Structures are given as C-alpha cells and as structure tokens.
C-alpha cells in the first residue's frame, strides 16, 4: 500500500522547517549497532514472552534541518544523529499513543515535537520485519510561548496526544501543551499537478500574452510526501495547566481538563468552549484538591470521569446539568488505617484514569498501586495491584527528592485482560487480571541485546538477594517509565524511557 | 546523679525515635550515587526536619513563576498534617479553615503556621487575581470581572512578606534576597507613581513594588494593559 519512503518532506511554513531523513528508510532510528534488522529474540518468561521489536531514538532538535542549510552543517547534524548518547532535554518523550487501528504510533516530547511512526507492512520478502515501526511524519506541534500579561513562559512540552478515528484518507490527532490544544491533519501526497497554464515548470508566472494554447493540468506521481498541517487551534480557554484531553465517542466533541476546570469543545469551533466542570473554590485559600486526569466513556457520549489529587474519581453525566459540578457517582476507597502516614494523601493522588475498552471498568494509577473499579461499585475498587510496594518504606526519601510526585500512566490491553504501568529503573509492570500473574520487565539499552530474551526482573526487598535480583537501594530513580501504550488489538506495546521509544511484541504474535 | 540523668534522657530519646521512625526524614541519600549518608538528625527534631523540608518545598513551589498547582496543594496539605501532629493542642481552625486565628504563643512553629496559611492563602488568591486579568479575551464566565482593580493583588503578594520573618531561617534578609536578580529597568518609568512605592520596604525591587501599589488608578491600569496587550482591552 505505501511505498518505502526515501525521504520525508513536510509542508514548509514559516514556522515549520522542512525535515529530511539523511539516509535510508530507518535513518538514524537504528539500533546502536547500526543494523536495521529488527531485534527479535525468543523464549518465554512469565506472562507470555515479550521480544524487543525495535528501539527508536527520537532525534535531537539539532536534526531538524532546513532545506537551505549547507552541506557542512548537514554533515555535522548527521553525526549528531548517529551519536546515540547525545540527547537534549527536549527529546524526552512526554506522551505515547497508538491510533485506533494500531497502524500509527505518535509520540510527543518536551521540545513540542510530535513524531509519528507507522507500522511496517507485511511483505513476503521481509516477513521478519513486520511489526517494526518506522518514522512516518514529524512536525513541530507547539512552540514555546510567552504570556506577556503574567510574564511567564508557556512550556511547549506535549502533555497528551489523542487520535481521532479515521474517517477518510487523512489522519487527525489532537496534541496539547499546558495551554493550547491543536488539531493536526496528517496526510499523504503522492501526486502533483503538472502542466499549468499560468505557471511554468519552475512555478514562475507566465506572461498571459505569451500563452497561445491551453492545456489541462494532469496529476503525475511523485515521491510520497507526508504533510502535517494544523487545522484548528483551541487556545485561551485554560487558566491552569492542561493535564488531559479526551475525544468523545460522538467524534464531534472533545474535552480538555486542567487543574481546576474541564472544558468541552466542538472540533469545528475554536473560539468557544463550554465549561463543564469547575472546582475552583470562591476563595483560593480553600483550595485543597485539583483535577488530575479526565476521560470520556468509550461508548456513552454523555458520560465522563475525572480523578483528583485526593484519590477520588467522579463520574459525571452531561445530561444532568450544564455544569457537572455535582457528580453522578463518586468512587473512593476508604483509607487503610494501618498504612496511614503523612504521605497518605500524596500517594493516593491519582495520576491517570482510563476506561476499559468495554466501558465497564475504570483503572486508576496512584503512586504505589493500580486499581480497577467497577462502575457499579463506588465504595472500593474490585482489584488492586501493587506496582512497587517496596517503596512504601522509602516514602520520606521519595518526598525529599520529589519522586513521590511522579505521575505514572496506565493502559489496558485490547481485550481488557492485562493492564500495564511503568515504574523506576526503566521497569514496567504487567498484570494479568484473569490469571492474577504479573511480570516486571525492563526497557533499557544495556539489557536488550539483539535476539536476547526479555527477562523478567525482580526487586529484592529483604536481606538475601538472589543472583538476578536488584535491591531496592540500587534502583535508579532518574530512569522512570511514565508513558506506555498498548496496541488496540495486538500484543504490541510501546514504552517510553526518557528519549528512547521501545517497541515490544509478544513472541506468539 | 548526672549519669543517671543522662541515661534517662537517652531512653526517652530512643522511645521518641521509635515512635517517629516511620515519618523520620531519612537523610541517607541511597538513591543517589553520591557519597556516604549524612548523619541522621537528632530524633527530637525529626518531625521538625520533615516540617522544614515541607516548608522548603512550599517555598520552592511558590517561587516558581507559575507554580504547579497539584504539587503546591499536595505539599500544603501534607504540611498541615505535619503541623497538626506536631502541635496537636494548638492545631485548631488553623489547620482546617483559613485564615487561622493568630497564634498566641511565640514559638516558631505557631507563627509559621499562621504566616504559612496566610501567605499560602494570599498567594493562591493572588494567583487567582492574576489569572483573572489574563482572561480578558475569553468568552467564558470567569472568576470575578477581569477589570478587578489591581489593588486586589497587594493583599496576596504582600503576604509574601510574612514568609520572610516567620520562617526566618529560610529568608534571613527578608524579601530582598528573593528579588536580587530581577531586572527592573523596564519598570523605572514615571508610570509608576512614587506614591506606589510608599509603605513598602525601600529596598524592595520595583518589580514587586509596583504590583503592590494600592494607589494605581484605573486610567493608568488601562494604559498599562493596552501597552502590554496591544489592542485588546479589558472587559469591564
């Protein structure tokens, strides 16, 4: 269907420099060995067997070349691309999201860029390549801005990306930073018109007096070009920092949530939004709780949930009233008195909330656990999974170094049978809801040799440490996996570790 | 006699240590690779060090040009919990409903609590005022009229004064240290009437002083807004 792409070109605009892959299809996004072959491996462990499909390095900002740059600069920049240890803070991946078919995978980073990867198509010649993702498009979604009124810089970091379901040949996604949501259209162009009457082949205008005959312009094939254009900009509606966006199942509206408010938008209308939740107290002095995440129900376009910093989830029905300050359901688990500490509230703060694909359950992530709730039972979750309970005794230190405020995300697999979330030391955890088994895996360069087995990891809590175990004190807290994504129908997962994107696949696949 | 006194004290310290162990600030930096763990703080001030840490965090958060609201709220709530546990007899309305009644005792803790809540409240209030001002082009109903006089701001920012002396160990030189490196050359214009600077510390940087001016009249405000925002005017 799609040809292999010798180079990727972006529509030039005054804001978006052209980006061009310097060489090859995989370009700089190869494994460290430079080999373009997928890193597959074998054999099993725990919960099915996971193999590393590819490790993708988000390119540094330096690599965004413009066509006008001279050869020397381009050579220098190419060498940056090959130097895998060079990474700026702008390259830190801040969000990962598969589209609804799983064909595309989008990442957003701290530098405001969006990189979209596309799945390699199955072909008879290169069967082993299937499942690999290659760069499809990359563009600068948000730029740093300056709010002159408040004398503040607005970060360009992409907080969330959400895809719209595909309705025509083009792909649409929403991307947001702290203040502004943008709708991007990503489309392909593989033909261009030739034979204009008023322009010559170089595009220069012709003197009409010199035209003696007319011809009909024809479309001729050209090298495939993927363009990203901003179609809508939804700005000036959020006083506080946007933490979530969610596309409604009606595909006509979406919501954006900040610390204190949630707004409902229509995709076609950018100068107006409806405020549907407002928890800002009349006296800011009374502020004790903020909104941490929000999501629409996957099937019921009138229903959504939002979570709070106090560990509660509220389900709201937009049919009840225009302003959904009064919830329809209120989910909260009573505090366990034996676990009470000064940090109880902080660790109960929910960092992510996700509906199951079925719409029957919601999953929440707080600092130490992942919980699954049945929408019909508000007083406690139906399942609780310990992500890294060994940190419970270290909360004070984690408070001191601010790690206790880290916001981990969580995801469902396509069938809602397995849930996944990240941890520290580049570990991520999977929990099988049916078998009640769990596994800890690691996403790191050192431990992912080509064709190596993805071994389950184990953290040792007590005194005796077995050979392959890692002691709690050796964990690297700067290596945190906050963002992960699961393919909507297959066992393919994307794990973001700082500036690296790992794609793993279930071997059985 | 002296010996037995010494022994007795030691036992009490141990008991206290056990009790607060769970909450004690573990000052060992095991999660970093650097150096040996520093000595543990004396148990009798263990909770104080957690309190101090929290105040430090609050400070740091407040100093951000745009504080992370979630972080701020969580730190403040944690701080209130710590305060409540440290001074259970004195933990009254101050913990649950601001503004707190002024503490009658003279110890650092009580005054910190009052100052803290007041400054916290003030800053959040101030945040809301500033947010309100920036809402000018927005069609949504908002928190108070954007045209609210800037006089509202001083109450909030003025409360920052309290942070200085109250938590003296953190800001020994009061507010001056906070604003040392702010370039205020753009504010050195006669738009900012000298009267505006009255009543504030003479060394206080103009950047803060101007915003604290309660006597800035609306015509000047309009002018300023027009300058800053361009053709966008504030809705009245």
From TrEMBL, chain A:
<dbReference type="GO" id="GO:0019888">
    <property type="term" value="F:protein phosphatase regulator activity"/>
</dbReference>
<keyword id="KW-0853">WD repeat</keyword>
<dbReference type="InterPro" id="IPR001680">
    <property type="entry name" value="WD40_rpt"/>
</dbReference>
<protein>
    <recommendedName>
        <fullName>Serine/threonine-protein phosphatase 2A 55 kDa regulatory subunit B</fullName>
    </recommendedName>
</protein>
<dbReference type="InterPro" id="IPR000009">
    <property type="entry name" value="PP2A_PR55"/>
</dbReference>
<dbReference type="InterPro" id="IPR036322">
    <property type="entry name" value="WD40_repeat_dom_sf"/>
</dbReference>
<dbReference type="InterPro" id="IPR018067">
    <property type="entry name" value="PP2A_PR55_CS"/>
</dbReference>
<comment type="similarity">
    <text>Belongs to the phosphatase 2A regulatory subunit B family.</text>
</comment>
<dbReference type="GO" id="GO:0000159">
    <property type="term" value="C:protein phosphatase type 2A complex"/>
</dbReference>
<keyword id="KW-0677">Repeat</keyword>
<dbReference type="InterPro" id="IPR015943">
    <property type="entry name" value="WD40/YVTN_repeat-like_dom_sf"/>
</dbReference>
From TrEMBL, chain B:
<dbReference type="InterPro" id="IPR052262">
    <property type="entry name" value="E2F-SERTA_domain_protein"/>
</dbReference>
<feature type="region of interest" description="Disordered">
    <location>
        <begin position="134"/>
        <end position="153"/>
    </location>
</feature>
<dbReference type="InterPro" id="IPR009263">
    <property type="entry name" value="SERTA_dom"/>
</dbReference>
<dbReference type="Pfam" id="PF06031">
    <property type="entry name" value="SERTA"/>
</dbReference>
<feature type="region of interest" description="Disordered">
    <location>
        <begin position="1"/>
        <end position="20"/>
    </location>
</feature>
<protein>
    <submittedName>
        <fullName>SERTA domain-containing protein 1 isoform X2</fullName>
    </submittedName>
</protein>
<feature type="compositionally biased region" description="Basic and acidic residues">
    <location>
        <begin position="198"/>
        <end position="213"/>
    </location>
</feature>
<feature type="compositionally biased region" description="Pro residues">
    <location>
        <begin position="138"/>
        <end position="148"/>
    </location>
</feature>
<dbReference type="GO" id="GO:0005634">
    <property type="term" value="C:nucleus"/>
</dbReference>
<feature type="region of interest" description="Disordered">
    <location>
        <begin position="195"/>
        <end position="214"/>
    </location>
</feature>
<feature type="domain" description="SERTA">
    <location>
        <begin position="43"/>
        <end position="90"/>
    </location>
</feature>
